Amino acid sequence: MKKIGDGAHIPKLISSMFHFIYYHQDKSWEKYTYMGYPILQNPMDLWLYQEIINETKPECIIVTGVAFGGMLLYFLNITQTFVGMSDTEVIGIDIELTKSAKNLIGTPHLHIIEGSSTDKKVIDKVNKIRKFKSAMVILDSDHKEPHVFRELELYSPMIRRKGCYLVVEDTNLNGHPVNPFWGPGPYEAVSRFSHTEQGTHFYADNDIWSKNLFTFHTWLKRI
Fold first, then answer.
1. What is the C-alpha to C-alpha distance for residues 216 and 218, in angstroms, rounded to an integer?
2. How far apart are CA 196 and CA 108, in angstroms?
3. How is the chain split among helix, strand and coil, in percent rounded to 5?
4. CATH match of 32-222 with 3.40.50.150
5. Which of 55, 160, 176, 210 has its CA 20 to 30 Å from the CA of residue 12?
6. Measured at the alpha carbon of residue 11, what is the angle toward residues 214 and 52, in degrees to the nearest 5?
7. Which H or E run contains 93?
8. What is the largest CA-CA distance in the chain?
9. Nearest to 163 by CA among 121, 211, 217, 203
10. Residue 88 in contact with residue 68, Cβ under 8 Å?
């Protein structure tokens, strides 16, 4: 095994240190907006999202955890801009909608559902909208392990096409490398999911990490 001193692990060590400082320094990532809507994202991850959407061209994008609506508007504008994606539906789910998110209700090709992402009635509404289309799914609601794991069970079957993505946001929590006292969260849910039968249909795309040398999320790609 190579030691830190031989330089093999230095880039990853430095990127983890920067990741920690960037995340915790006045939570700079919380201050970004998209077209006036708070977006609560690392901009380098947003760049990765548009690359993936252009590459995979999902027929439907499902986001659990709407917050202020910035991510929904971002995905909607991307899909309406890329050639051949004007019919892509964007679905957002949140247990309680903010005022700014409610302002987006009624926007063509954008659907906002109020309720728990794991509630059967909500899942039924999602399926009615997507109509068996292959989806890209982004999990960004309750960041406790049991909830994220349940979302993985419920939403992973909606990703039907090889090469499409299931993105579990904020797997950096609980010391990976930020918020070390968070407790079991998205990272642990992904680890648990990877040992299930459904989980064997996905792998973590580590090439994503290599582009920016750090990411807040885990990018699971359909085999």
1. 7
2. 37
3. 45, 15, 40
4. yes
5. 55
6. 30
7. strand 89-94
8. 57
9. 203
10. no
Residues of the chain with pLDDT under 50: 1-2, 4
Angle at 118 between CA 116 and CA 121, to 5 degrees: 75
Quickly tell me which residue has 């990490």 as its tokens.
Answer: 209
Alpha helices in the chain (DSSP H): 10-24, 43-56, 70-81, 99-102, 120-130, 145-155, 186-193, 207-212
Q: 155-174 pLDDT, tens per residue?
A: 999 999 999 999 999 999 99
Cα 115 from chain centroid? 18
Strand pairing report for 202-204 and 218-222: antiparallel
**Residue of 145, 141, 139 lying closest to 219 (CA atoms):** 139
Query: String of b and e for 152-163 (b: at least 16 CB within 10 Å)?
Result: bebbbebbeeee
CB atoms under 10 Å from CB of 175, counted, come to 13
Is residue 163 within 8 Å of 222, Cβ to Cβ? yes
How many angstroms separate the CA atoms of 159 and 118, rounded? Answer: 16
Write down the domain spans for the chain: 32-222
Q: Give the contacts of 49 (CB within 8 A, at least 6 positions apart).
A: 74, 75, 78, 167
**pTM, whole model, 2 decimals?**
0.94
